[in-house]
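QUALITY CONTROL LOG
STEP: pairwise intake check
CHECKER ROLE: data steward
CRITERIA: each record must contain a sequence immediately followed by its structure tokens, with no blank fields

ENTRY 1 OF 2
RESULT FIELD BELOW
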Amino acid sequence: MNIVPSIRMAWAFGTWRAPSAWHDIQIFTQAGTTRLENVCLTALTVANLAGESAELTWALPNRIPDNPIKDACIKAINFKSDRKVFAVYREGARLGTWGQFEQSKHTPDPFAGPWNHWPVGLNPSDGRYAVSHDRVTHAALGGAEHVGNWIMYGFTDQAITSLIPLAKSWNRPPKLKRLDGCQSSGYSQTERAYRLAAEASSVSFVLDGSEETPIYNPCFAIEQWTNKNKSRLIVNGKELAPGQSFRQGITRATDGTITLVLWLQLQSTSPVRFTVEDGER
């Protein structure tokens, strides 16, 4: 099955800077296929950080569902594929659906559109509904208001509720405490990383995880790292060996300064202590 999903933005995993407080979910369909071949009528699943979720089902000819979940900030698009596209918004966003006033009368689906002018239309056709599926088309499901400047998005093959710890860790990052040998400039939402600056060859800190501020695969970028080699990482008194669950690397700025980047596959709802030392020891 040919599926070309899109969120109309310039794990896959990433963040996107919205130019305004509005974000729209749109889907691409390859030439020769229709929306209903690629997307379920239960096209969206939404959830909030309290654990509530709902499936939103469109119905022919033009029934558009409402979002019943208060404070929903997680959305999954239900493509007919193993992995679903998801988007996580900041708390306070308002997720909606639309399309009842923008539907082509020539195509048998209840979604907004489809249009054939963006982004690969060969003829001037801005604003024109598609009348067949002989070319790439795009359609819309619904948008979000008050999204702020950042959105997290990616792919998942899990239930939408499995994204809640990730969404919490991004919206409510655990605080760094008991820093030794380093200073912190806080959590960077765009990088999903904590930014620190080393003041010694060994640094340590505590990440204050809890049920409401969980630790979820944290990343640390330690600037001014004076050791040219990689590090030894000790978590709650136990040294971790580099591998699938612990990765690290060195980056160098144009002025020659070194930043050590650490990533861990680690989830916790309690505080965790990290110690980072010179890897040559």
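ENTRY 2 OF 2
RESULT FIELD BELOW
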Amino acid sequence: MSGPRQAYEFLKAASMAHARWDYEVSMSIIKSKKKLLILLLLALPILGLTLVDAADIIGSKQAYAPAHYTDLIFFASIAVGLAAGLITGCIGAGGGFIITPALMAVGVKGILAVGTDVFHIFAKAIMGTTVHKKLGNVSLKLAVAFVVGSGGGTVIGGWINKTLYNHDPILSDAFISLVYAVLLGFLGTYAMLDFWKATRKKTEGGDAGAHDAHGGSAGMTSLSISLQKIHIPPMITFDEDFGGRQISWLWVAMGGVIVGMLAAIMGVGGGFVTFPMFVYIFGVSTATTVGTDILQIIFTAGLASIFQYAIYGYVFYTLAMGMLIGSLIGIQVGALTTKVVKGIHIRGFYAMSIIAGFINRVTTLPKKMVELEYLQMSKPAVDMIEMVGNVVFWLVVGFFGFWVISKFIVNIGKLREEG
């Protein structure tokens, strides 16, 4: 298997693992009347707040925001969360990738979109995680070593974003858009190639294998075997129930640094690449990984959102609550719809949504480059390019949302019988 293909499989497994976590914590909230009541109480007051006021409540500085706030912005954030939830629930991957680009597409500054996204993930983790149910599978030593690294990673990632923003907000937006364009372009290209191959063969083989990547047994890879043979004390012992394995704290902490940086730079949350990293690189069993990931995502997302963004005023509490509400609805509808749609269609929409996110971010770069005086193009030309990217993005997301919801409504009787 080639290097790029391996990287794609790793990132796809990461996306699917994060989607599974998102689904589990969302269902935990939806099934609890107490948690739903708390969410309602948190959401109601924000309709009377301005975005600037909301930022001041959380942070010590006044964040960049529109001069006037309308309830429409709050409802737009619900729509963003709904779209992400539908993608996560129906496709089982990819929903988390569109939140920051979607917020930026409606005019939110990149640093605020990142801060708000990771804060929304932290809020969902706090409300939806039931740690006590999986304490038997938690390795505290792995979690502590990882969080030490991820905490440092959030400092680095947050420093990069804040430094760029303080130097020039346009440069900050360009940097975040570029990071997303590279990641989504890479993922989207391979996802579309896989979809075309599956379409030509007229088979859905491969879907099961993809799910095995984050739900099956934890086979030791050559890399994980090599890392576990390098003894750099202190060594961490884990998976005692499976015969016991050891790995140096250094590798775990270094992995944490990478995850923390991604969380702080992209706003995708601390659980994005943790699962495949633990299983394929560190050689940790899936059972221990799931339990340990529950602890680390709370701390990593919390450190990134609170200490790198919220205290500086770079979180819109208003939008975070709106996205949380929308995503809870979307995930449930999307997950139910998978029972009545074909897998090949789901794979196609996964590729299309990732490609649409890529187009949306890459088409903003010419305008940013002109504003930074790195490129010479006419203003009408760059505005047109950016508008095309926005139209393509919202058409794809809107069509996907309409398709899923229509399938859900048409088959609601059948779904009730199965339920």
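INTAKE CHECK: passed for both entries
DESCRIPTIVE NOTE, ENTRY 2: The chain has one domain: 3-418.
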